[in-house]
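Homework help thread (please don't just give me the answer)

Our assignment gives two proteins as sequence + structure token strings and asks us to describe the second one. The first is just a warm-up. Here they are:
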Amino acid sequence: MLYELRIYHINSGKMKVVQDRFRDHVIQLFINHNMKITHFWEDSDEVNNRLYYIVEHENMELRNHNYDRFRNDPEWIEVKRISELDGALIHKQESIFMKDVPFFENK
């Protein structure tokens, strides 16, 4: 299993819009494209204005394939367009890829 920690650096005043977009659209679109989100967090220091989440993938090849399908999904393209009418929501996105270690059972 490949775990992707995605970190979104949110533009000022846009956190609620990003969270609403995930709640109302993106989580279901990810499910539609075989991507499983397992955890969500927001930074405990609001000054940082960051959102974090984990997506599970079988491997990197499948991850890339699923994201390509997601990014080209007409529903996503329209959701993104509408949600960003007042400007970009995210100014930086990072991905950190992780795998399990043999000495500890993650739950």
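The one we have to describe:
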Amino acid sequence: MSSSVQVLYPATEGTHFDYDYYVNTHLKMVAEIWGPYMKTAIATKGLSGGPDTPPGFHAIATLVFNDGDALKEGMAKAQPLLDDIPKFTDCQPQMLIGEVIG
């Protein structure tokens, strides 16, 4: 069964997010480091939280791994990705690691 990692970047007041760096540098690092373990990856830029509501998140990355073993192997190599986060945002990311159920 596939496993996933979602990284949520909250858009709290006063935080910044460098989308150019995120797309052109960080996501390329994700592909290089985790690509062999993943089925798919998608990154979404927050535009709104609904009608007339600002977005709750700058971005959300959804990374689907082949299975639980691939997720474990990928997570063991995650440190360069974690170290890169301060280069594009000063928000505190949230993570959800889970099992794909649908």
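TA reply:
I won't write it for you, but here's a hint about the kind of observation we're looking for: The two ends are 11 Å apart (CA to CA).
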